Amino acid sequence: MARQISSQDLANRLAQGEDVRIVDVRQPWESQIATLPESTLIPLNELAQRSREIGGDPSALVVVFCHHGIRSLSVAAYLERLGYTSVLSLAGGIDAWSCEIDAAVPRY
Fold this sequence. Notes:
Layout: E1 3-5, H1 7-15, E2 21-24, H2 28-33, E3 39-41, H3 47-50, E4 62-65, H4 71-81, E5 87-90, H5 93-100
Parallel strand pairs: 1-5, 2-3, 2-4, 4-5
């Protein structure tokens, strides 16, 4: 099973300037409502064709997120099978981020 990262841990890593690739696996309409800065939108149903867009060193940290953290768990496991060695799913998704880190991020 894929590993998870809390919103607070991700916020701390970003604040420290850690290089984190953030991948949003929700649908475009969801991303239009709320998103995380510096994230790349690759909807789950397009991931197989677009996984190369994640790019970079496969050992670099990749954090995937969705609405509540369910879809991103399956994506993290998929990326691990593709050879990414440091993949984490955002526990609770963007909803947790909004509740715990940035209330300006709309909830839906």
